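User: My instructor asked us to take a sequence, write out its structure as tokens, and then describe one feature of it. I'm not sure where to start. Here is the sequence I was given:
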Amino acid sequence: MSDTLQHRLAAAVDAAFDTQIAFLLELTSHPSIRGQEQSAQDFMAAELTKRGYALDRWQIDVADIQHLPGFSPVLATYDDAVNVVGTHRSKTNQGRSLILNGHIDVVPAGPLDMWDSPPFEPTVADGWLYGRGGGDMKAGLASNLFALDALAACGLAPAADVFYQSVVEEECTGNGALACLARGYKADAALIPEPFAEHLVTAQLGVIWFQVYLKGLPTHVAYAGTGANAIEAAIPLISALHAMEHRWNATENRPADYAHMDHALNLNVGKFEGGDWTSSVPAWSVFDVRMAIFPGQSIDAAKAEIEQVILDAARDNDFLRNSLPEIVYHGFHAEGYALSQDSSAKAASAINALDQAHRITTGEDLVHEAITATTDARFFGLYADTPALVYGPRAEAIHGFNERVDLESMRRVTKATALFIADWCGTEDQ
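Assistant: Let's start with the prediction itself. The structure tokens for your sequence are:
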């Protein structure tokens, strides 16, 4: 790629950056939590159509994907689970094809009075954009789209097919990305601009979600000794799960990418419900758990150990041994994925192209790091023989209050992405 084209692409990103910020403000204003992504997907579909991309919009059918590797079981309906893909078809097909993937769904905002400003009324202050989903990961959707816009502003298009994906379900199952694979979208590489501070993710953890149901014996608190408290009965089970978490994090269990981390795997009790009345001993409880696993760690083996830990702890409890807990899996059934373990020439070439694009844009070497979260990269890397590069802007407080994204970081990522596309796909005249 010539120095002239590098400068032209960077200038094109700069020229459109105010428009890009306006785009991100509009997109972030759509409260696209699980089951409510339709308006945001309407917006994305309109923006892709306006740019002339061939639009594919469809409602995910669980029957189409539930037999596939990587599928996560779901409890909620998929009546409103809609994916959007915009396709650029190359005239020459001289380059390498690319998937630009991002998720439109965001996590719930939580108590609104704990935000400094309403989470779905995004604002810009001191170089940051504030709002739920602005960082995770609507800024990435913006950087993907406006990187393509920069090529178009230079009178160019990718010299290979490019599939721009706006998917649902990343925050709870990943089934949106899986549905794209089932629909036939494949490419030589994938780029996912999740907000990891302009670093390249070399490894990510897997995640398992499950619920534990307990049943007790209700009675008036005046006679609590004759009942069984289903809330208090959960305490030894949670303690046993944390002991398991400690064992899994032991030095001898860590793969190379995580050898330097003392506590990469985190167990989180994210939700707890139980009881019906303050003066009644609670007859039921249920708690939701998220547990991480390492790349290469078997989901089936992990589930078997989780179940054994819970049942062993229950049998040590005077009440629970006669009323064993029920374990229900829903949501993430996600394997870990390590780009670092992909020894293919295709992966090496893609990483090298992104390394160069980042260095040209920032003047610095691209940091490679393992993360303690999961992303949709696993679907491409594990099930489609496609190296998946996770590289996006700097964001803070994602999944928290006052989530924000660094706009200058988004600008740099957009420039680097434009350079990466031009290098990886090549260019042709529009």
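For the description part of your assignment, you could build on this observation: The longest strand covers residues 206-215. Try explaining in your own words what that tells you about the chain.
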